[in-house]
Amino acid sequence: MTSTNLKIRIDGAAGAAAPYEQLRAQIADRARSGKLPTGFKLPTVRGLAQELGLAANTVAKAYRALEADGVIETRGRHGTFVAAAGEGASREAAAAGQAFADRVHRLGLSMEEATAAAADALRARYGQ
Predict the structure, then answer these.
(1) Where in the sequence is the domain holding 37, given as residue range(s)?
(2) Same domain flag for 111 and 76
(3) Residue 25 and residue 9: Cα distance in Å, rounded?
(4) Best exposed site among 7, 31, 54, 114 by fewest CB in 10 Å?
């Protein structure tokens, strides 16, 4: 399944990531790379669902995750748009970093132990 406007491709093969995750990742990647510029108006949930042959709830779940990550923003009846690059992601990363720092401090970890734990998690996530 492919979206012609966004160039989104959903792999329905067994073992592929869930469709909402594929959609979320592709929109996020295109927004962060600039292929989808700030202010680009995304299709409606129903419109994109129909175009990709997905359930509307699947697209809505991807849009909610993208909005929570600061990649897109919904402007009421005006639609859903690509948010200003990096602003939401930077704020979210800073908040996550602060929460991590607070938690490891409460656990009594040293800075070196906390840094090692974060580095291990990042290596595992990015496959390095």
Answers:
(1) 2-82
(2) no
(3) 11
(4) 7
Residues 60-98 pLDDT 10s: 999 999 999 889 999 888 999 998 765 666 667 767 888
Clarify whether residues 94 and 55 are in a common domain. Answer: no
DSSP assignment, residue 17? Answer: P
Helix or strand holding residue 97 (H, E): helix 87-107
Q: Is the pTM of this model over 0.85?
A: no
With CA atoms as reference, report the closest residue to 10 among 78, 68, 66, 59.
59
Exposure string over 62-88, b if 16+ CB within 10 A, otherwise e: bbebbeeebbbeeeeeeebbbbebeeb
Q: What three-state secondary structure class fits 104? A: helix
Number of domains observed in the structure of the chain: 2
